[in-house]
Amino acid sequence: MVDVLSQNEIDALLAALDSGEMDAEDLKKEETTRKVSLYDFKRAVRFSKDHIRSLTRIHENFARYLTTYFSAQLRTFVQINVVQVEQLPYDEFIRSIPKMTILNIFEAEPLEGRMVLEVHPNVAYAMLDRMLGGQGVAPSKINNLTEIETIIMERIFSRTFESLQEAWKTIIDISPRLEALETNPQFMQIVSPNETIALISFSTKIGDTTGMINLCIPHVVIEPIMSRLSVHHWFVSQKKARAPEEVEILEQRVNKAKLPIVAELGESSLTIKEFLGLNIGDVISLNKSVNDGLKIKVGDKLKFIGSPGSVKDRIAVQVDEIVVEGVEEDYDE
């Protein structure tokens, strides 16, 4: 990346050249020297900046869905925000989380492989306390989960995957499913230690308790759909096909919609004086012959040509011809 000098640095450089403190030839030599940048092969770059931006947008939606879900479930103030999206080796992620934490291991078909939603114990136990009728305060000492606590935790976080499914709909339809709930990171080996992962970190506040929720997505899991994470796909994605049930309901509603239908006998022009002078029995001449067909309009569009008549002592019009789209002008003469 090219360094950009500020105006003060440029002025200082020019002043040094004018005073003789710096030689222009020395500057040319520095430009010709080869610059070497460090590259850590343990931290392979698998996600481009474009991918990171797309993952950020997806999980900002996920954070909003989670905020709504947990606020309703816990009946207290909940605030969840994305604070960072980065890529790092899986081993580094394992070493960065507490030795005792809540690890929700899940799969998301049709993607192959496993992912992890890690919840800091402060946040998880605050949720547990609220679900059991408490104030949502995390305990000072974190112990292993009992069987009852484990079941409650599984129920809480199983529903969060519905929010994840909704957030990913613009990219792919996934069906996340909780596989296991662990508390010790050392017992969780979903990919090799050097595998690159995308780590999405959420700051979480439940009442007065704060903590982090981390979503670990291995690169190997979403590699088949990496092209969909581009900005081009994000804005020019194809419209999702509606479910058959939605199409049927939509058709039923459209079929019940009412449309105004008007059969025009003809038109005429009168002056204001003639209009004001009309009396009962006066005849107004129209611009149509009695042998001409009537224009039948649906809304303001000409759709049919018909002839007047009556049915059971009621005025009616019979459809004689269907007007093809684009030939309306033929009937305006």
What kind of sheet is the major sheet? 6 strands, antiparallel
Choose one word for the global shape. Answer: elongated
Q: How many discrete structural domains? A: 2
- Give the C-alpha Rg: 36 Å
**Arithmetic mean pLDDT:** 81
**Count of helical stretches:** 11
**SSE series:** HHHEHEEHHHEEEHHHEHEEE
Distance between the termini: 71 Å
| Counted beta strands | 10
Structure write-up:
- By secondary structure, this protein is α+β, with helices and mostly antiparallel strands.
- The termini are far apart.
- The protein has helices at residues 7-19, 24-32, 49-74, 90-96, 121-131, 147-158, 160-167, 219-222, 231-235, 244-255, 272-276, and strands at 78-89, 102-109, 114-119, 175-182, 196-206, 209-218, 261-264, 294-298, 301-311, 314-322.
- A hairpin with a 4-residue loop joins strand 2 and strand 3 (114-119).
- The longest helix has 26 residues, at 49-74.
- The model has no long low-confidence stretch (mean pLDDT 81).
- The protein has two domains: 49-244, Chemotaxis protein chec; 258-331, Surface presentation of antigens (SPOA) (Roll).
